[in-house]
């Protein structure tokens, strides 16, 4: 083959344009450099070496050279070094976007979950505050007003019940007076006074609802006698009793012990009776061990006091709870 033919068969040789090291790379070249750099950052082995700048530069130079040779790009070592230096110089730079509606909308979208959470928290807090104020849970005049209205409503309910239960007109009149008293407390916002009045009325209602008989017990001991200390003189004769409802159940009672002056809740206590009544009951029990006429008093529904029914006892005397 002739020399001219050989020369024509050979690929044309182009002389690489050598740019000064400080000249910037083209956009495509920079893109390739950044792609390679991002790939390297994803590799853990490379990430562990990034603390050593010299090793990282050497590895980048090698990878860029391999990429350039594979693509057939005539890139010089100076250009590679310039690209690497430019990469490290701009590695931690950030250009904030221009402010505007689009930037604001993008920021809102990125923070949409945080914004939603804050909005829900604020709305919940507002609802709780509003609900607390409306329901009277928060301190202040509104709370006092609602508490007073609630207590007054309960007083009205109890007085209405007392008026229906009471058989004594005097008790009904007392309930009506209590309602008027409660209205005065309501106007003044005196919650404590309303609560005290309600407590007293509830106790009265409970007494009016109660139904039972005061019965002499049939146990080994149905009566006792008290003697004055020192002299030994008889100071009182007592029958031991208990309250029993219509079903035969023993009802606990609040009894004031005349000897101590204290209120006690008991299921048995002793009622003072005249001496002749005491002796008659004791004689009745000695005959066969059983008290035939056991009812000492009866408490009827709608009445405040018990009615003494045992013959010979005109009214209730003292009560004691221990013997």
Q: Roughly how many Å apart are the termini?
A: 148 Å
Q: Major sheet: size, sense and barrel closure?
A: 8 strands, antiparallel
Low-pLDDT windows of residues: 1-9, 11-22
Quick one: how many beta strands? 10
Mean pLDDT value: 83
Radius of gyration: 52 Å
The 3D shape can be described as rod-shaped
Structural class: alpha+beta
Number of domains: 4
Strand content: 5-15%
Question: Fraction of residues in helices?
Answer: 40-55%
- Total DSSP helices: 11
Order of helices and strands: HHHHHHHHHHEEEEEEEHEEE
Would you give an account of this structure?
This protein has 323 residues and is α+β, with helices and mostly antiparallel strands. It has four domains: 18-89, no CATH class; 101-137; 139-209; 212-320, no CATH class. It contains eleven helices and ten strands. It has helices at residues 3-9, 27-42, 44-49, 53-71, 77-89, 101-110, 112-135, 141-165, 169-188, 191-209, 275-288; strands spanning 212-216, 223-227, 234-244, 250-251, 253-256, 263-266, 269-273, 295-299, 307-308, 319-320. The strands form two sheets. Strands 1, 2, 3, 4, 7, 8, 9 and 10 form an eight-stranded antiparallel β-sheet that branches. Strands 5-6 form a two-stranded antiparallel ribbon. α4 packs across α5 (77-89). The longest helix has 25 residues, at 141-165. The relative contact order is 0.07.
Secondary structure: elements and pairs:
Elements: H1 3-9, H2 27-42, H3 44-49, H4 53-71, H5 77-89, H6 101-110, H7 112-135, H8 141-165, H9 169-188, H10 191-209, E1 212-216, E2 223-227, E3 234-244, E4 250-251, E5 253-256, E6 263-266, E7 269-273, H11 275-288, E8 295-299, E9 307-308, E10 319-320
Helix pairs in contact: 4-5, 8-9, 8-10, 9-10
């Amino acid at each position: 083959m002739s020399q001219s033919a050989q020369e024509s068969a050979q690929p044309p040789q182009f002389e690489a344009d050598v740019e000064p090291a400080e000249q910037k790379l083209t956009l495509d070249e920079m893109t390739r450099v950044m792609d390679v750099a991002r790939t390297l950052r994803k590799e853990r082995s490379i990430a562990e070496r990034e603390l050593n700048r010299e090793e990282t530069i050497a590895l980048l130079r090698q990878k860029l050279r391999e990429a350039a040779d594979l693509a057939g790009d005539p890139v010089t070592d100076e250009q590679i070094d310039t690209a690497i230096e430019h990469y490290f110089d701009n590695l931690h730079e950030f250009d904030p976007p221009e402010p505007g509606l689009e930037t604001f909308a993008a920021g809102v979208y990125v923070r949409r979950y945080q914004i939603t959470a804050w909005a829900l928290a604020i709305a919940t807090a507002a609802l709780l505050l509003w609900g607390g104020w409306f329901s009277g849970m928060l301190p202040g005049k509104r709370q006092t007003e609602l508490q007073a209205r609630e207590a007054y409503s309960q007083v009205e309910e109890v007085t209405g019940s007392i008026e229906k239960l009471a058989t004594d007109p005097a008790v009904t009149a007392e309930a009506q007076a209590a309602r008027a008293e409660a209205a005065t407390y309501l106007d003044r916002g005196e919650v404590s006074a309303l609560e005290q009045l309600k407590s007293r009325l509830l106790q009265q209602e409970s007494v009016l609802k109660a139904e039972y008989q005061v019965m002499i017990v049939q146990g080994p001991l149905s009566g006792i006698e008290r003697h004055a200390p020192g002299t030994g003189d008889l100071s009182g004769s007592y029958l031991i009793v208990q309250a029993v409802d219509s079903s035969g159940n023993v009802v606990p009672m609040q009894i004031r012990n005349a000897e101590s002056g204290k209120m006690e809740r008991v299921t048995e206590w002793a009622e003072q009776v005249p001496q002749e009544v005491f002796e008659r009951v004791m004689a009745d029990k000695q005959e066969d061990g059983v008290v035939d006429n056991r009812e000492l008093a009866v408490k009827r529904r709608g009445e405040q006091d018990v009615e003494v029914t045992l013959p010979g006892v005109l009214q209730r005397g003292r009560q004691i709870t221990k013997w």
